[in-house]
Every structure is written in C-alpha cells, then in structure tokens.
Write a structure and sequence with these properties.
Strands 1, 2, 3, 4, 5, 6 and 7 form a seven-stranded mixed sheet that branches. The protein has one domain (about 5-145): Nucleoside Triphosphate Pyrophosphohydrolase (Alpha-Beta Complex). The chain is of the alpha+beta class. The protein is about 25% helix and about 40% strand. The N and C termini lie far apart (about 35 Å). It is globular and about 35 Å long. It holds the Pfam family NUDIX. This is Nudix hydrolase domain-containing protein. Belongs to the Nudix hydrolase family.
Amino acid sequence: MPVVLSVRAVLLDDDDRLVLFRRTVPGKELYWSIPGGHVEPEDASLEHTLHREVMEELGAVVSAVTPLTTLECVRDEGVKTQHVYGCRLVSMDPALRCGPEFDDPARGHYEVMRLPLDPAALSALNLVPPELGAYLADTVTRLPALIG
C-alpha cells in the first residue's frame, strides 16, 4: 500500500477566524477543506510544500508556521499521511491563485470562507478528510494559543 505525503494549513486570519474552502464539484456532495496538497519531488521540505500550496490555492503568504499533528488517512488506494500545520495569514490575493484546480471547470469551485472557531459549527460541516474534521472539532478553540 503506497504512502502519500501531504501537508495541510490550519490558517487563522487577524480576527482568529479559520480560513477554509467551500468546495462544489459537479456530481459530488458539497464539502469543505483547508489549503494543502501533496509533497512534490522539488519541495525542499514539508514547510516549503506548505508555503507553495497556500500560494497556489489562496495567493497567500503565511507566518507563525507551527506543526500541530500528523494524521494517517487509510484509504483503499493507500495511506495518506497528512502533516497538519497551524499558521497565520499575512496576506492573500486571489488573483495569484494558480494550478490545475483553477484551470479546469470540471474540478469545481474553491470558495474561500472564514469561519469563527466554533466546535459545533465545524462539526456540522462535511470536512474532508474526516480525520482532519475530527481533529479540528476537538482543537479549534485552542488554535490561537497553539499557533501564537
């Protein structure tokens, strides 16, 4: 079973709101996710991957990058190891977003949302992957202290 390495950015803005994507994909149920993606061979480190992914997906620069947890997501096609980092949003310019997810309409829409740190509201979302949703619902109110 292959292991796929990924990073995820638990991103807080200046008002301590969580920055997420509301994902609409043709033919799929609405779901939510946070920025992140696969580690590429040219990435120098996991943190480099994180900075690359938030720039690609949000046109964002982040600071206070803090390791939070590592999730093992077991799927039929293999194990996806998700390195989850907390960080602070420094700037965001959606015009800088780039990548295949924005070039292909079949991949749906990535609507950037900012949500309060409310465990009940977060638990009500279809957050993907579900392991991340469970982690966030359990720790969301502590994120400002964990990230700094």
